[in-house]
Design a protein that fits this description.
The chain is α+β, with helices and mostly antiparallel strands. 27% of the residues lie in helices and 28% in strands. The protein has helices at 51-56, 76-81, 112-123, 128-148, 161-173, 177-187, 189-194, 201-215, 240-250, 262-275, 372-378, 381-389, 412-417; strands at 2-14, 157-159, 223-233, 255-257, 291-304, 315-320, 326-343, 348-355, 359-366, 392-401, 403-410, 438-451, 455-456, 466-468, 474-476, 481-487, 492-499. The protein is globular and about 60 Å long.
């Protein structure tokens, strides 16, 4: 019995402005403030891929990690310019049968008919790529809830659903029929495929390839990268079709390695450290020499606020962790035009903090300290769509804590709860990858996010109990909150997190 290991590594990094860039180490040293505040510091056929695609994406079977720099990262602009991608297909909007207007899509979500009605209503007038990201987000919120149930209420949480969805999409390429169906059901890919007669299983992989192009191009004003590394034990035979499809759809090529060699651990860690600009230094502390396959998904984001927070306005203030506990933390302050909304049904206020490049952080702040549980239970693509549709723009004063989160999860038990069981048992079928019997014994997800003054380096629906936040002129984030990072061209939920105590990572 071979053992498969999957590691999903997600990283969100502080973005300095183009002028006056600081050493990255300065973002991890908590400066001693004066009594008032801080002192400022100084349609795809794998066999028919054009020659340009193969040339730009050649990956050898040797581990060559030394000297990995920005120019070594796949240049998707060149790939697109070479005509190697049908760049229009993912933006097509085909008609789907949406539920009748009298169906209450905000009713009990455990009813499968209601869940499908919600999904199809959200799919209306959305592109194919946006539809895939709706199901990716739904999976992400469900996974968040599973993690929430396994940690203390006082714990911070950080999760990168986009990276995990990409990794599981790639794993499904190697899965046999039953295991493949289980992945598609648990991830929501099956719901996507069944939404339109135009779709089939390969549509999912085509759109993940397109999502990679859309998210990780260089010219959008932010830096967002995802790299999938696939390592396979030397004496395990990998099917040619799996090699070709992982390379074609996910820009990854399986590399033959000896997991018993210490050099593998060092080189793999060094590569991740470089990709994440030093934020994730040693994700692999040990490697089981009996592993047959390791998948590492590295996600890196660097963004700059459209409206930076003036450093001289940052001061220590109280943050209410609970009814009995306050902590003194650096609170950033800014005044400007911001989009916001009030959700009276979920009793929370929502603020949109935009980064340069049509990507933003949504802050969802419960009005009561006890309101986090309800917000976490109910948050969904439907709810987020409602927030974004009903936001109003006006001048507001925003007060937000600086924070840094570092989280590490083994997701096997969480994914089992969500229906992914075959992957981790002898009954798992990976016949699409190899003829040998394998099972997955480890799925690790690790992430870091730092938020400071510069930025972060890491169809209408029925409105129920919902009003624009038009009267509020101050938005003070001084108690536990949720944050979401969305890329708005694709409606992609990149990160979701919970900050209960910003003084702890």
């Amino acid at each position: 019995m071979w053992v498969i290991t999957v590691i999903s590594v997600a990283c969100l990094l502080v973005s300095p402005s183009l002028a006056g860039i600081k050493e990255i180490s300065s973002h991890f040293t908590d400066p001693k403030p004066d009594p008032r505040g801080f002192e400022p510091e100084g349609g795809l056929d794998v066999q028919a891929l054009p020659v340009e695609f193969h040339k730009e994406n050649t990956v050898t079977n040797d581990l060559v990690f030394d000297g990995f720099e920005d120019e070594d990262y796949i240049d998707f602009d060149k790939i697109i310019a070479a005509g190697s991608d049908d760049y229009i297909e993912g933006d097509e909007i085909d008609e789907i049968a949406t539920p009748a207007p009298d169906i209450d899509i905000f009713a009990e979500p455990s009813d499968p008919k209601i869940r499908r009605a919600r999904l199809l209503r959200l799919f209306h007038s959305q592109s194919r790529l946006q539809r895939l990201n709706i199901v990716n987000a739904r999976f992400g919120f469900n996974l968040y809830r599973s993690i929430r149930n396994h940690v203390n209420q006082s714990n911070n949480i950080l999760l990168a659903p986009a990276g995990i969805s990409i990794a599981m999409g790639m794993m499904s390429l190697g899965a046999g029929s039953r295991t493949h169906d289980q992945i598609y059901k648990a991830m929501g890919f099956g719901d996507f495929v069944n939404a339109s007669h135009h779709y089939d299983n390969r549509t999912v992989h085509k759109l993940f390839r397109k999502l990679t192009h859309r998210l990780f191009r260089r010219n959008f004003g932010y830096t967002l990268r995802s790299v999938n590394d696939v390592y396979i034990k030397k004496d395990v035979s990998v099917k040619d079709a799996f090699r070709a499809e992982t390379k074609a759809f996910y820009f990854a090529e399986p590399q033959s390695v000896d997991f018993r060699e210490p050099a593998f651990l060092n080189k793999a860690n060094r590569r991740i450290q470089k990709l994440t600009k030093g934020l994730i230094k040693e994700p692999l502390k040990s490697v089981d020499p009996n592993m047959v396959l390791m998948l590492l998904n590295t996600l890196y984001f660097k963004g700059t606020w459209e409206q930076k927070f003036p450093k001289e306005m940052t001061h220590y203030r109280n943050f209410r962790v609970s009814e009995r506990t306050n902590v003194r933390v650096p609170m950033m302050t800014n005044k400007g035009n911001y989009l916001a909304a009030a959700d009276h049904e979920l009793e929370c206020d929502v603020l949109r903090l935009p980064y340069t490049g049509n990507i933003s952080m949504l802050i969802a702040l419960p009005r009561k300290l006890t309101g986090m549980r309800t917000l976490e239970k109910e948050i969904s693509p439907t709810v987020v769509n409602k927030w974004l549709t009903n936001m109003t723009n006006r001048t507001r004063e925003v007060v937000l804590p600086r924070f840094k989160l570092e989280q590490n999860y083994d997701l096997i038990e969480n994914l089992k709860e969500m229906g992914l069981t075959d992957l981790f048992q002898d009954s798992g079928d990976f016949s699409g990858m190899t003829s040998e019997k394998v099972a997955m014994n480890w799925l690790k997800h690790q992430g870091t996010i730092t938020v400071n003054e510069e930025g972060t380096e890491a169809a209408a629906l029925t409105q129920v109990g919902f009003m624009p936040l038009s009267s509020q002129i101050r938005f003070v984030v001084d108690h536990p909150f949720l944050f979401l990072i969305y890329e708005h061209r694709t409606d992609c939920l990149v990160f979701i997190g919970r900050v209960v105590n910003p003084s702890q990572s």
